From TrEMBL:
Organism: Lachnellula suecica
Gene3D superfamilies: 3.40.50.880
Pfam families according to UniProt: ThiJ_like
Protein name: Class I glutamine amidotransferase-like protein
SUPFAM superfamilies, sorted: Class I glutamine amidotransferase-like (SSF52317)
Superkingdom to which the source organism belongs: Eukaryota
InterPro entries xrefs: Class_I_gatase-like, ThiJ-like
Length: 253
């Protein structure tokens, strides 16, 4: 049997290194074929504030995550990603689409991409169980899905159980750093909706569908109807990857 295939779509700049590199390392260890995609095939870069300097030490990636990112960033797949704007690009051959997060404004390139929306609008419905296709998303990566509309005009995850970055976490980070980082922690600028609010607005029944935890312990949510798993922030990245691997391995057995 061929190894499962994973695609990690990324903006040219700004994704969280932990939410990208930790799952990548887990997928590689599991023997998966991992590919990256950017808009025009340009090698991506994760958010430097999370990788170096004072912001890294206070708020950013751990040493292990930085090491994992440095290793990932030198691989041929990362250096030479697929172009998602290519006419030949499609998601059909992948068993898992993994959407990393990150609060740096550059991630809007992925969240707002009409091309990515078009491909996900076709792919996500095909993850309805039983299926050999799946999606995992973390933090702002969930917004890529919530902002993608299907043929019915609703978000493709309108009926799914999901989590995303909790409003309280986002607000603590924003107000705690505003004096020296401005609106860095607000992807769409000060005064814009928090991630949780943006996602909730796209759900049919947000009270029951949006699952939250303010614990620092890893927390992920798995939908029952679709092969879809979500996480909140970097601390969930390893568990999210493990759950995604377990899901893929189950339906490929």
């Amino acid at each position: 049997m061929a190894a499962p295939k994973v695609l990690i779509p990324m903006s040219d700049y700004g994704h969280d290194p932990t939410e990208t590199a930790v799952p990548y390392a887990a997928f590689e260890k599991a023997g998966y074929v991992v590919e990256f995609a950017t808009e025009n095939g340009k090698a991506p870069q994760c958010d430097k504030k999370m990788l170096e300097g004072v912001t890294q030490k206070l708020l950013g990636a751990t040493k292990d995550a930085v090491d994992a990112y440095n290793e990932m960033s030198t691989t041929p797949g990362f250096q030479h990603p697929i172009s998602w704007s290519s006419p030949e690009f499609n998601l059909d051959s992948y068993n898992l689409i993994f959407l990393p997060g990150g609060h740096e404004k550059g991630v809007r390139q992925l969240i707002d991409s009409p091309i990515i929306h078009k491909h996900l609008a076709s792919y996500f419905p095909a993850t309805k169980k039983p299926s050999t296709k799946s999606v995992a998303a973390i933090c702002h990566g969930v917004m890529v899905l919530s902002e993608t509309e299907g043929a019915n005009g609703k978000s493709i995850i309108h009926e799914c159980i999901t989590t995303a970055l909790p409003t309280r976490f986002e607000q603590v980070a924003f107000w705690g750093t505003r004096a020296f980082l401005g609106d860095y922690y607000k992807t769409y600028g000060a005064g814009s909706d928090n991630v949780e609010e943006s996602v909730r607005k796209r759900l049919d029944d947000p009270t029951n569908q949006f699952k939250n935890s303010l614990s620092m312990s890893p927390f992920v949510v798995q939908d029952e109807k679709y092969n879809y798993i979500s996480g909140r922030f970097p601390a969930d990245a390893q568990l999210l990857a493990e759950k995604a691997i377990a899901l893929v391995n189950t339906f490929l057995q």
